[in-house]
């Protein structure tokens, strides 16, 4: 089981797309927020594609809440794509979908 | 009679060591043909139980004991640490609206463990905490 965590990010107009690869724990969460903070002044939407992240923990998710707080203050929105069913259930239990959305694809947010 | 398989591991306080417990869980589940959704939920339960225990276990004994007992029908998870203990009744139910605006965005572990299992018992004393979790798998 790989423990490396990587992000590939792209900017499309006012949208930051981050494709994560690996375990979203404190280290992964910190990297996501760091990448987000580099672009915060130029974006309104953030898409996190979790196709290659099948394991998360609540500490990693707490970093996503930090992003949601910042996006809320800037009238922005966080979207998730390619959610593993267990991660989706985790987000539902926490109530995250009151503040963020699940999207069918990255393109559906960009278009 | 149902096959019953067990795993007992002593995990040191090392970053991402919870993945070792998860890997054991997944291999046991695959061997017994447990549905992926059940193993996925158990993965969250084990991750949260182990990271909580590792965070609270004492420096004099920086280890966490993890035990799995699995049949096709049921998984029993025991996670034991040697921390100073806590009062489970004092744990506040997290609320997403409050957490978003709070500087402390953590505190979801017990809620996730309870939500994704069928029974959860916390036995805590000043010498350590044992969390016993039952998850039905069928």
CATH class of chain B: Alpha Beta
Poorly predicted parts of chain A:
none
Give the CA-based shape of chain B.
globular
Q: Report the mean per-residue pLDDT of chain B as an integer.
A: 95
Oligomeric state as shown: heterodimer
**Per CATH, what is the topology of chain A?**
Transcription Regulator spoIIAA
Write a structural description.
- The complex is a heterodimer of chains A (111) and B (138).
- Chain A has helices at 26-39, 58-73, 85-94, 106-110; strands at residues 6-12, 15-21, 45-52, 77-81, 100-102.
- Chain A has 111 residues and is of the alpha/beta class.
- Chain A has one domain: STAS domain (Transcription Regulator spoIIAA), CATH 3.30.750.24.
- Chain A has a 5-stranded mixed sheet.
- In chain A, β2 (15-21), α1 and β3 (45-52) form a beta-alpha-beta unit.
- Chain B has 138 residues and is of the alpha+beta class.
- Chain B has one domain: Heat Shock Protein 90, CATH 3.30.565.
- In chain B, 36% of the residues lie in helices and 29% in strands.
- Chain B has helices spanning 18-32, 36-56, 96-101, 109-115; strands at 5-12, 63-70, 74-81, 119-125, 128-136.
- Chain B has a 5-stranded antiparallel sheet with strand order 1-2-3-5-4, with helices on one face.
- Chain B starts with a strand and ends with a strand.
- The chains are: A alpha/beta (111), B alpha+beta (138).
